[in-house]
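ARCHIVE CARD
Drawer: 12
Card no.: 0347
Subject: one protein chain, sequence and derived structure
Cross-reference: see card 0346
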Amino acid sequence: MPKWNLKLPMTRLNLNVVLFDAFSNMVLACLLEPLRVVRDQHGLDISWTILTETDLAVKSSSGIAVTPDSRKAEAVAADLALIIGGDIFRDTRSAKTLRRSLDPFISNATVIAADTGTWVLARCGYLKGRKATLHWQLLDEFAETFPQVDVKSDSVVRDGRFWTCGTAAAALDLMLDYIRDHFGSAVALDAGAMFLHDNARRHGASYPDQSLPFRASPTLKRVLQIMSETLENPEPIEALAAAANMPERSFHRLFLRELHMPPGKYYVLLRLARARELLRYGGMTRGEIALRCGFASASTLARSFRKHHGSAFV
């Protein structure tokens, strides 16, 4: 059985979100909005608790105040913890005290540290001997300050349960990767398409380059561009392989390696993502949507949607 079918997707997720003073609204949105889409569009049980370093309200870098949902001491363990650092990160306060306050609710969780959140984790000793990254402007200073961390210049780094990134775009990549790992590729593709809906409409595509996995090769991006431009009249897989100048078997392996599913399935998911966009925003009948997305009829579209998403086309 192919590797991409071995693990059943999760149906619920709870997370703790720790905000530090002068955090980035954009980074927060790129991490939470895809999960909000998954929750709202797929009816999954996803919840989060907003926490702050001081248990008091913090302001983002643009001055928006956010009040925590609870004190850190009252937070419960979660499946996922988001550590979102801010512009004020060169902290001289006790790292041991901060670690004691973080330990209870991140000790068994996957931890995504974004922006200067990586600096917070390193200061507390969580990243000793681990690979990590953060915003590119701080890489050199970070490496000098924390020589025990294996600093990488990659946009995102995954080392065990600690995932790190720097920019908002990288945070989006990382969250879509998390969704793909835990809820399945169909849900991740839908989240990416919905989150970047405005840009997708401008370019006539359901899954623009900005939402592709950060690891996508130039060949894969070129093929996906062709797919996104031919949703109404899907090309045969052999034609796509020829456009990529690859034998069909190699073409198939490319998709399994980089997107963990066959090209035919990915093509269908692109069309379904576009159909959902048109249903929500396009003002078209279901029959018109079906034809626009390469399905013979509204009933064919509905059957395909239920097969791949496990729910009705709504």
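Annotation on reverse: The beta strands are 12-19, 45-52, 58-59, 65-66, 80-84, 110-114, 131-132, 150-151, 156-159, 162-165. Residues 3-176 form a domain with the Rossmann fold fold (CATH 3.40.50.880).
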